[in-house]
């Protein structure tokens, strides 16, 4: 395993790509918390704080697909550097107004919305770079290493937040600005060639490009199937994992937030370990591999839903931490494999919009269902439906996929 990752890490392009993305992700997590903390400090209102949280998610539903088109149209390296350079002064403006005692909730809301909107264009472009700097043989390991660093940064972010809080919330924004600067330096050291689309660029053609992608996607059975599976699994996971688990702990113990944080930490460590092991034990990735990962994921939710106590929540989190990254890595790999380079931006942005849509609908519907049904029943139902989706999908793949064999890459079918 060590030699496998060592050879990938020696590749300057991959190394700078991963470092830049990881450092930038750390800043994103910290500033995301800072916007919420500062909004509450300014207003003391749960409603206004919720509004800030909405400002961090709505841009992806509004501009996610447009961001994919822009990522496909323009030179990705120049675009990424330009977008990072836009975010730096926005964050410094918050610092400036704060120290001038002129910061307001509305201004904070606007900056948060703009930062996240820029992310709608940055993220698909950044994702689309990896296939340009890796060979097909390197891609699984590179994807695994990228996700490992990203997850690792998320796990470490509470440590940084506790340290920064001792100095003041405003320094979260300073650190985020520094991470974007580091990201620019790393991107300057990533070198690759790409063919730019020679097409007319206008608002009308943005929507035509989105339409063209979905018309192309309509003919791709495997990708449609993958996107449908992703929506179903994420829909049934989001509420029971992010909200239901916390509410269940609140009913069981007075230390619910602390235990929830520890469970999330166990989950994060498991995800990192799984990411590192996937390239060793899984040589070929296809929809069956995705379904196996989803099955393990669903069994984790079903497990802690049935047994429903704190000790088994930890075991369930480990199972989810094994299944989720397997499914995630397979999804990214198949998008990279099956989508042409000039459509990768739109493919990844569509995937992101799908995830945000599934999250939003899940939180809304399960929030209503929780009024009538117990948390335990919702957990059991969600885990069971994810597991059944996996089992039924594996059964169907034995019949359906062979019929499509002549239209699929040989490596995909092995």
Polypeptide structure, described:
- This protein has 414 residues and is an all-alpha fold.
- It has helices at 2-9, 12-43, 46-55, 58-73, 76-99, 105-133, 136-165, 170-188, 203-218, 221-252, 256-281, 287-307, 310-338, 344-372, 375-400, 410-413.
- The radius of gyration is 21 Å and the shape is globular.
- The model is unreliable at 405-414 (pLDDT under 50).
Overall pLDDT score: 85
Strand content: under 5%
Give me the Rg, rounded.
Answer: 21 Å
Unreliable stretches (pLDDT < 50, length at least 5) are: 405-414
Largest sheet: none
The total of helices stands at: 16
Protein structure class: mainly alpha
| Molecular shape | globular
Number of strands: 0
The arrangement of helices and strands along the chain is: HHHHHHHHHHHHHHHH
Q: Report how far apart the termini are.
A: 23 Å
* Proportion of residues in helical segments: over 70%
Short description:
The protein has 414 residues and is mainly α.
Give the tags.
single chain, 414 residues, mainly alpha, 85% helix, disordered C terminus
Topology (elements, then pairings):
Elements: H1 2-9, H2 12-43, H3 46-55, H4 58-73, H5 76-99, H6 105-133, H7 136-165, H8 170-188, H9 203-218, H10 221-252, H11 256-281, H12 287-307, H13 310-338, H14 344-372, H15 375-400, H16 410-413
Helix pairs in contact: 2-3, 2-6, 2-7, 2-8, 3-6, 4-6, 4-9, 4-14, 5-6, 5-8, 6-14, 7-11, 7-13, 10-11, 10-12, 10-13, 10-14, 10-15, 11-13, 12-13, 12-15
């Amino acid at each position: 395993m060590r030699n496998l990752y060592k050879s990938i890490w020696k590749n300057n392009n991959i190394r700078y790509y991963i470092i830049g993305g990881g450092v930038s992700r750390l800043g994103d997590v910290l500033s995301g918390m800072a916007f919420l903390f500062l909004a509450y400090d300014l207003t003391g209102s749960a409603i206004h704080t919720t509004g800030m949280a909405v400002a961090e998610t709505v841009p992806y539903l509004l501009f996610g697909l447009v961001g994919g088109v822009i990522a496909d149209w323009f030179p990705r390296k120049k675009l990424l550097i330009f977008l990072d350079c836009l975010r730096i002064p926005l964050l410094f403006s918050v610092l400036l107004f704060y120290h001038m005692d002129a910061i307001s909730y509305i201004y904070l809301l606007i900056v948060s919305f703009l930062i996240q909107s820029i992310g709608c264009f940055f993220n698909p472009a950044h994702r689309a770079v990896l296939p340009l700097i890796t060979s097909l043989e390197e891609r699984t390991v590179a994807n695994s290493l990228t996700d490992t660093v990203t997850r690792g940064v998320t796990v470490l972010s509470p440590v940084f937040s506790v340290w920064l809080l001792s100095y003041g919330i405003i320094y979260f924004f300073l650190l985020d600005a520094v991470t974007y600067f580091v990201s620019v330096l790393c991107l300057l050291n990533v070198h690759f060639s790409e063919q730019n689309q020679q097409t007319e660029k206008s608002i009308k053609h943005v929507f035509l490009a989105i339409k063209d992608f979905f018309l192309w996607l309509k003919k791709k059975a495997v990708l449609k199937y993958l996107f449908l599976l992703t929506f179903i699994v994420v829909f049934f996971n989001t509420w029971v994992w992010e909200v239901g688990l916390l509410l269940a702990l609140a009913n069981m113990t007075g230390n619910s937030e602390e235990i929830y944080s520890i469970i999330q930490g166990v989950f994060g460590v498991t995800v990192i370990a799984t990411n590192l092991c996937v390239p060793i034990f899984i040589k070929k990735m296809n929809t069956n591999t995705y379904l196996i990962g989803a099955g393990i994921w669903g069994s984790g939710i079903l497990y802690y839903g049935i047994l429903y106590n704190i000790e088994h929540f930890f075991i369930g989190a480990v199972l989810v931490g094994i299944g989720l990254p397997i499914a995630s890595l397979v999804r990214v790999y198949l998008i990279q494999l099956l989508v042409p380079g000039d459509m990768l931006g739109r493919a990844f942005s569509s995937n992101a919009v799908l995830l945000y849509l599934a999250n939003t609908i899940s939180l809304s519907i399960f929030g209503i269902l929780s009024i009538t049904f117990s948390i335990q029943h919702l957990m059991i139902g969600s885990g069971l439906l994810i597991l059944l989706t996996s089992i039924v999908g594996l059964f169907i793949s034995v019949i359906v996929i062979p019929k499509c064999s002549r239209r699929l890459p040989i490596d995909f079918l092995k």
